[in-house]
Write a structure and sequence with these properties.
The protein has 214 residues and is an all-alpha fold. Helices cover 62% and strands 2% of the residues.
Length: 214
């Protein structure tokens, strides 16, 4: 290691991990006592005080030790937190737009399949099916479709999030089954409800009029 023009040879005794997310004081290398005592040194200390008391503390320290530099980090942390919040809001907005687009696509698919739903309902009525039985069949069909779509979307989203977090952002991956389960369940219910809403009108179709046109 080159330290201020002086080459220092040292043996690696152990390795340690540095958690930069804690915003604490971390050092990449730690030497044994007696190695760096003759080198110029700068001492660092981190102090947490309640908001509003920083100025009194800084004034007291600088009066007692004029060569000490005090740096306020509260404002920097607040700015960092605000930036992270803006990024989070942008991600939420993107997700909301994606969900809205998905709902529109689903609505278009339901509208496109309305005629087929009417035909199925008429055929089932002619074969003796009651309105309740046909509605139950359509509800089961839409429920299965919603569950499959939600499971596939949840799996693909989890895989994409894993690679984004571990490969691009280089941070630890934390799997949260609770939000995933609640999101997929809500999506499945939404898909089933929209699908069934599109087929509910088909149940009111008159078989005679439809068969006459056929």
């Amino acid at each position: 290691v080159n330290l201020l023009g002086r080459e220092i040879t040292a043996t690696i005794a152990n390795l340690r991990s540095i958690d930069l997310e804690r915003l604490g004081i971390n050092f990449a290398l730690v030497f044994a006592p007696g190695t760096l005592e003759s080198a110029p040194q700068t001492r660092l200390a981190a102090v947490y005080v309640p908001e509003g008391e920083e100025d009194d503390l800084v004034r007291a320290i600088t009066e007692r030790f004029p060569n000490i530099s005090a740096i306020h980090v509260r404002e920097a942390l607040a700015t960092f937190d605000r930036i992270i919040g803006m990024i989070g809001n942008a991600v939420r907005l993107t997700a909301l737009v994606t969900v809205a687009a998905g709902v529109l696509v689903l609505g278009g698919a339901v509208a496109a399949g309305h005629r087929r739903r009417v035909y199925d309902a008429v055929v089932l009525k002619v074969l003796g099916g009651t309105r309740t039985a046909i509605a139950r069949a359509f509800l089961i069909e839409n429920g299965i479709t919603g569950i499959l779509a939600a499971v596939v979307a949840g799996a693909l989203g989890t895989i994409a999030a894993y690679f984004l977090v571990t490969r691009l952002m280089k941070i630890d991956w934390v799997f949260l089954p609770g939000p995933l389960l609640s999101t997929t369940s809500l999506a499945a219910l939404l898909i089933a409800a929209l699908g069934f809403a599109g087929t509910w009108r088909a149940l009111g179709a008159k078989p005679a009029q439809f068969l006459r046109n056929e």
